[in-house]
Amino acid sequence: MTTTSGSAKWQGGIKDGKGAISTKSGALNDYPYGFASRFEGKAGSNPEELIGAAHAACFTMALSLILGEAKLTAEQMETRADVTLEKQGDGFAITSIHLTLNAKIPGADDAKFQELAGKAKAGCPVSKLLNTNITLDAKLV
């Protein structure tokens, strides 16, 4: 198996502070994040969008594997993961993730596609990691 890493730096307080996110691959290298990008829609990244990107990528790769096992190959798949962060008690929690998949898969019928997409949603490693409500809207186009 593999082990990889991501890292974060932070300077200052919660509202005036500035952070930087990096990944081992270099895909992100000191990319800015902070309170304003997380809660006020300002430029920069935030943990929730990174979790969304990771979940969308993991789910889509898992579905590719599951499709292959069913002798199907996607011509194209596009997945979006909407991650909801809500205030709970004294803190915050990710309360749900909604996956939206649009896929072009020659030879797939909707019933089989829905079954395989559901397996990918339940079985991808990021889904297994997350302790939240995960929903899926999968469409063949």
Estimate the strand proportion: 35-45%
Please, what is the CATH homologous superfamily of the largest domain? K homology (KH) domain
- CATH architecture of the largest domain, by name, is 2-Layer Sandwich
Structural class: alpha+beta
What's the SSE pattern?
EEEHHEEHHE
Instruction: Give the CATH topology of the largest domain.
Output: GMP Synthetase, Chain A, domain 3
Mean of the pLDDT scores? 96
Distance between the termini: 35 Å
**Silhouette:** elongated
CATH class of the largest domain: Alpha Beta
Annotation, overall tally of beta strands: 6
Unreliable spans are: none
GO molecular function, one term: peroxidase activity
GO biological process, one term: response to oxidative stress
InterPro entries: KH_dom-like_a/b (IPR015946), OsmC/Ohr_fam (IPR003718), OsmC/Ohrsf (IPR036102), OsmC_Ohr_Peroxiredoxin (IPR052707), Peroxiredoxin_OsmC (IPR019904)
Protein name: Peroxiredoxin
Describe the structure.
This protein has 4 helices and 6 strands; from the N terminus they run βββααββααβ. By secondary structure, the protein is α+β, with helices and mostly antiparallel strands. Strand 1 and strand 2 form a beta hairpin. Helix 2 (47-69) packs across helix 3 (110-123). The protein is elongated and about 55 Å long. The relative contact order is 0.14.
Provide a compact summary of the structure.
The protein is of the alpha+beta class and 141 residues long.
Structure keywords:
141 residues; alpha+beta; 2 domains; 3-stranded mixed β-sheet; 35% strand; elongated
